[in-house]
Amino acid sequence: MTTIAEPRAPRAPRNRRSTRGNFELYGWIFMRVSGVVLLVLIFGHLFVNLVQGEGISAVDFGFVAGKWASPLWQVWDLLMLWLAMIHGANGVRTIINDYAERDSVRLALKTALMASLVVVVVLGTLVIFTFDPCPVDSPANLLPSFCSA
Questions:
Q1: Digit-coded pLDDT (tens) for 18-52
Q2: Dihedral through CA 110, CA 116, CA 121, CA 127, nearest 10?
Q3: How do residues 93-134 score in pLDDT, each as one tens digit?
Q4: Which sequence spans correspond to the domains of the chain?
Q5: Which of helix, strand or coil describes residue 60?
Q6: Long-range CB pairs of 89-93, under 8 A, 24+ apart, other chains included
Q7: What would the CATH number be for the domain defined by 30-131?
Q8: 140 Cβ partners below 8 Å, 6+ apart?
């Protein structure tokens, strides 16, 4: 006969030591705060790009170039990128902690997760701040129509 432990019975300790401390609390708080801020950023982004403008058909290279000419939209998109990536990575980190049982697997998965987070955030940040729709010395036939050749 199999017995099931009572719901309030203490759990059996895991065979790995916990070094999380307050990090998990701060991660939990970050998820709630960043989720609310992301809602504002995303719906603001969608409203300006799709509702206030001419819809999805107007979103093209020139639209993005014009938008990123403003520091407001550069910072807006940067915040959206950073918060979304860190929010998502924190969620995946939690899933890895919950389901990866071996320490080596957990370490490998979290290392790959953090490496991909850094790559996407660094490349996205570089694109936002170094984007130049009219690069100097480019052939005129390759430049958008709004650039002066």
A1: 555 688 889 899 999 999 999 999 999 999 888 88
A2: 180
A3: 999 999 998 999 999 999 999 999 999 999 999 999 998 888
A4: 30-131
A5: coil
A6: 89/113, 89/114, 89/117, 90/27, 90/30, 90/31, 91/31, 93/27
A7: 1.20.1300.10
A8: 149
